[in-house]
């Protein structure tokens, strides 16, 4: 609502009032970046290292893989449970790696190192999942038994079922995303650890071949369906992961074979479909942005349809354009129905910043029909999402745990909500944890850096442990936020 300030105020006070009305909170992006990366230590599975900073966590899942006589320890729990789901873990790894590739030079050196450590905790595990010929391990842990318990990962006594897909059964989605993760991470490690980078790239090619040779969705396989569904079924098809994996291999290798693959398979694999989605299941918007880099640079004009799709998507995010149709909450947060809404806000803001970088380097703008959109506009829109998450919202709450003065205290997370094994060495059995789940007390262990699912379409957040759609953190909400925060550490006022 427009208003005017009466002239009875002196000029200096007028200026101060104007500043307080027009500017949001000044956020400490470097503090938020440190915490966003630290979060991943709270999600670790396996033997924890000596330099583990999240001290309330301890070793867990140490027998993972024994039924195959294979070491499948390590990796990350995806959210507030104790299952290792390969599909979202691989996407998380891709996004952490992309964060370092695009924005790593903007990170303070110690946080750049911490980000690489976070990536390697995942890639060491992903290498194990593709270590056997014509087989990919897609999950460890039976989610039915896991979700019926409320227990610390350190006490885990639920079935650690290993879910594997053997050729000729298909797993194009998980194998394609794993290929993307390993290819992207090979770029992240190229300067600091060339030998490891080469190992990652070699295995990325192997994972992609498995994905492409035996096409289909992993959740269509009877031997894994009951484990992966309904949690991380492939709802949107496997085709996008094939193109996504090929695009990352093209970026990592500059090999024209992968370029040819993208060109020749684009239409048959539905590259122009669902251009407005990006997340652990649907890669289309991210694929289009990724591939557009070479088009904008004038290197590969034959992929212009990807640039067109990328820019069509970005135009939908701008309310002033004729093609706008993305829903926002009254407070300005990108909103999509379903759970864990902040995954959309972080992943979409990430794509806005990446594309803004590509536009800046090539001095281009986007034609959105009735207006032209430049890099600065995209960056300012991304900043609004970031600042909303960090506290500039109707609740006045940071949705990153441990950041700011007011943040979620009762997150849906087993390890955070139960007394730590260091404070309570006795085992807390499956159902014994229920009293902690049902308690209205704040979680005893602060999962620093965790970004929760976030508020509803009305901007309201109840801080309720049982409301997992709003109160559960996930690795794939945090992963793109790492890159976003790195940008704003270096450019707080775009």
TrEMBL record:
Signal peptide (UniProt feature, chain positions): 1-26
Keyword Hydrolase: yes
UniProt protein name: Endoglucanase
Active site: 412, 463, 472
Family the UniProt entry places it in: Belongs to the glycosyl hydrolase 9 (cellulase E) family.
GO MF annotations in UniProt: cellulase activity
PANTHER family: ENDO-1,4-BETA-GLUCANASE
UniProt key word Metal-binding: no
Catalytic activity: Endohydrolysis of (1->4)-beta-D-glucosidic linkages in cellulose, lichenin and cereal beta-D-glucans
One Pfam family hit: Glyco_hydro_9
Recorded superkingdom: Eukaryota
Single GO biological process annotation from the record: cellulose catabolic process
Enzyme Commission code(s) on record: 3.2.1.4
Start and end residues of each Glycoside hydrolase family domain: 29-485
Keywords: Carbohydrate metabolism, Cellulose degradation, Glycosidase, Hydrolase, Polysaccharide degradation, Signal
Native organism: Phaseolus vulgaris
């Amino acid at each position: 609502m427009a208003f005017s300030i009466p002239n009875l105020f002196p000029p200096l006070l007028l200026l101060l009032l104007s500043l307080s009305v027009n500017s949001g909170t000044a956020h400490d992006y470097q503090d938020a970046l440190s915490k966003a990366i630290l979060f991943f230590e709270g999600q670790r599975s396996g033997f924890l290292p000596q330099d583990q900073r999240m001290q309330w966590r301890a070793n867990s899942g140490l027998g993972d893989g024994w039924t195959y006589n294979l070491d499948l320890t390590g990796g990350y729990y995806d959210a507030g449970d104790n299952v290792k789901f390969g599909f979202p873990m691989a996407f998380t790894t891709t996004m952490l790696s992309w964060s370092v590739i695009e924005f790593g030079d903007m990170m303070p050196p110690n946080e750049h190192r911490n980000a690489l450590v976070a990536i390697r905790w995942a890639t060491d595990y992903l290498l194990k999942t593709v270590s056997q010929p014509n087989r990919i391990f897609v999950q460890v842990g039976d989610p039915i038994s896991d979700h019926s318990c409320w227990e610390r990962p350190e006490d885990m006594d639920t079935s650690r079922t290993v879910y594997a897909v053997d050729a000729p059964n298909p797993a194009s989605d998980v194998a394609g995303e794993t290929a993307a993760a390993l290819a992207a991470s090979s770029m992240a490690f190229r300067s600091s650890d060339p030998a490891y980078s080469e190992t990652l790239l070699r295995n990325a090619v192997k994972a992609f071949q498995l994905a492409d040779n035996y096409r289909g969705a992993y959740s269509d396989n009877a031997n894994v369906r009951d484990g992966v569904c309904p949690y991380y079924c492939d709802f949107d098809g496997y085709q996008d992961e094939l193109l996504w994996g090929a695009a990352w291999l093209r970026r990592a290798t500059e090999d024209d074979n992968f370029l040819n693959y993208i060109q020749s398979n684009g239409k048959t694999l539905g590259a122009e479909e669902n251009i407005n989605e990006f997340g652990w299941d649907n890669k289309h918007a991210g694929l289009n942005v990724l591939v557009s880099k070479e088009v904008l640079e004038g290197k590969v004009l034959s992929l212009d349809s990807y640039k067109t799709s990328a820019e069509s998507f970005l135009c939908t995010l701008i309310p002033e354009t004729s093609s706008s149709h993305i829903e926002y909450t009254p407070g300005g947060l990108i909103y999509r129905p379903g759970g864990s809404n902040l995954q959309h806000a972080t992943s979409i803001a990430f794509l806005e910043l990446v594309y803004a970088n590509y536009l800046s380097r090539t001095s281009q703008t986007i034609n959105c029909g009735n207006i032209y959109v430049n890099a600065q506009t995209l960056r300012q829109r991304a900043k609004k999402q970031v600042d909303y998450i960090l506290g500039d919202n109707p609740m006045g709450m940071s949705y990153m745990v441990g950041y700011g003065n007011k943040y979620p205290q009762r997150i849906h997370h087993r390890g955070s909500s139960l007394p730590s094994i260091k404070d309570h060495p006795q085992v807390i059995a499956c159902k014994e944890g229920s009293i902690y789940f049902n308690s209205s007390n704040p979680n005893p262990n602060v999962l620093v850096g965790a970004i929760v699912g976030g508020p509803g379409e009305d901007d309201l957040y109840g801080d309720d442990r049982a409301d997992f759609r709003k109160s559960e953190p996930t690795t794939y909400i945090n992963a793109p936020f790492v890159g976003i925060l790195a940008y704003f550490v270096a450019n707080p006022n775009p």
